[in-house]
Design a protein that fits this description.
Shape of chain B: globular
Largest interface: A-B, 29 and 29 residues
Oligomer: heterodimer
Helix content of chain A: under 10%
Number of strands of chain A: 11
Number of helices of chain B: 0
Structural class of chain A: mainly beta
Largest sheet of chain A: 7 strands, mixed
Number of helices of chain A: 0
Number of strands of chain B: 11
Distance between the termini of chain B: 38 Å
Radius of gyration of chain B: 14 Å
Structural class of chain B: mainly beta
Strand content of chain B: over 45%
Order of helices and strands of chain A: EEEEEEEEEEE
Distance between the termini of chain A: 31 Å
Order of helices and strands of chain B: EEEEEEEEEEE
Helix content of chain B: under 10%
Shape of chain A: globular
């Protein structure tokens, strides 16, 4: 158990809809990261938050947004969903902002299926 | 533009033999490298890491080698066990000086045959 909690584990929805994925980082970790893994693809970095503020942005679509709350949990909002958004979404956390020798701890992911 | 490459999508090895997983990177700013292992229906778990000031790091059956001039690293698993069957991701970071996030390769699926 990595200590990172993601809910829900599975989500099935229709095109055009909006969903929210939730992540609670490990106790003491201030950074939260969101990654997307599509079929046969690697882990694509979406966005990072550190202590409530956006720290880095990757290949995140404009239809997607995220935030980190004062209690450090994070939510990833996906709107106007398309079939191609079907993927496994991972949340990860780390203590800081990735100084050398830090590592990411991953949750078990949310499997999103857009029908 | 794939900055971290794992050119072998899959690898099969006999139990007890050595598994060698390879990773190449293009960004010379990367100074910290990690390997993650992922089982189905689980999140990736940290396996081993290496800083660019080293060329080898060992942890039990797992050894990572880094060749900075070739921008290449490899993970050796000796001896391989059936429980090692998983997808292995190579990741690289330039730390606080760049991007502040890890870049992952596409993964290599390792199958260890009994």
């Amino acid at each position: 158990d990595s200590g990172v909690t993601q809910t829900p584990k599975h989500l099935i929805t229709a095109t055009g809809q909006r969903v929210t994925l939730r992540c609670s980082p490990r106790s003491g970790d201030l950074s939260v990261y969101w990654y997307q893994q599509s079929l046969d693809q690697g882990l694509q970095f979406l966005i990072q938050y550190y202590n409530g503020e956006e720290r880095a942005k990757g290949n995140i679509l404009e239809r997607f947004s995220a935030q980190q709350f004062p209690d450090l949990h994070s939510e990833l909002n996906l709107s106007s969903l398309e079939l191609g958004d079907s993927a496994l979404y991972f949340c990860a956390s780390s203590v800081g902002v990735l100084a050398t020798n830090e590592k990411l701890f991953f949750g078990s992911g949310t499997q999103l299926s857009v029908l | 533009d794939q900055q971290v490459k794992q050119n072998s999508p899959s690898l099969s090895v006999q139990e007890g033999r050595i598994s060698i997983l390879n990773c190449d990177y293009t960004n010379s700013m990367f100074d910290y490298f990690l390997w993650y292992k992922k089982y189905p229906a689980e999140g990736p778990t940290f396996l081993i890491s290496i800083s660019s000031i080293k060329d080898k790091n060992e942890d039990g059956r797992f050894t990572v080698f880094l060749n900075k001039s070739a921008k290449h690293l490899s993970l050796h698993i000796v001896p391989s066990q059936p429980g090692d069957s998983a997808v292995y991701f190579c990741a690289a970071s330039a730390g606080v000086n760049y991007g502040q996030n890890f870049v992952f390769g596409p993964g290599t699926r390792l199958s260890v045959l009994p």
